Amino acid sequence: MILPIIGYGDPVLRKVGEDISKDHPDLKETIANMYETMYNASGVGLAAPQVGKALRLFVIDTTPFSDDEDLETEEQNQLKGFKKTFINAKMIAEDGEEWCFNEGCLSIPDVREDVYRNERITIEYCEEDFVVKTEIFDGLIARVIQHEYDHIEGILFTDKISSLKKRLIQKKLKNITEGKTFQDYRMKFIAKKGR
Question: Per UniProt, where does Fe cation bind (predicted)?
Fold first, then answer.
């Protein structure tokens, strides 16, 4: 089922997600719905807060990035088919040089900004089997994971840009909060709740 994506300004996007137990109700259904919602919106990642659930859960599929002709073949191959569910993730380390990439977010439509992130991460998480794994990722995969991990920590990519850039996008952010934005996927806005 395709879920509405929560728009910028909703308090759920600022909550730190709660850990999920193995017997969490409807977890498999929630995960399936999140993938369907992400694909419907042409995203490469989606976190539970973006569908109104303050949980430590996010899903990613970096396959769309594999079509980027500017990338080396090896990186294209890594991105193609990289699909993973992250439950109860904890960032162990972010290291390597910081590098810039123009990021966007399904909860903040029509806003894209350059964000600096570390090139490599070490993260502990569970997949749907709840077996704890610790893995190292780098490049675009690491960036997508960092972006989605921020969501379960109540952080948005707009928090990582300069105060000048924040001032320049204030009107766009206000419009999103008020539901004055148009995109080709379902959204739910704080200003339209209760109407």
Answer: 105, 147, 151
The answer to whether 105 is a known ligand-binding residue is: yes
Strand partners, 126: 87, 132
> Of 128, 148, 153, 178, which residue is the catalytic one?
148
Question: Does residue 148 have an active-site annotation?
Answer: yes
The domains located in the chain, with CATH, are: 5-192 (3.90.45.10)
Q: Which amino acid is at 74?
A: E
CA distances from 142 to 79, 95, 135, 173 (A): 11, 11, 11, 26
**In the structure encoding, which two tokens stand for residue 54, read together?**
């303050």
Answer positive or negative: Cα dihedral of 1, 3, 103, 96.
negative
Q: Report pTM.
A: 0.94
Residue 24 marked in a binding site: no
Report the 10 Å Cβ neighbour count for 24: 14
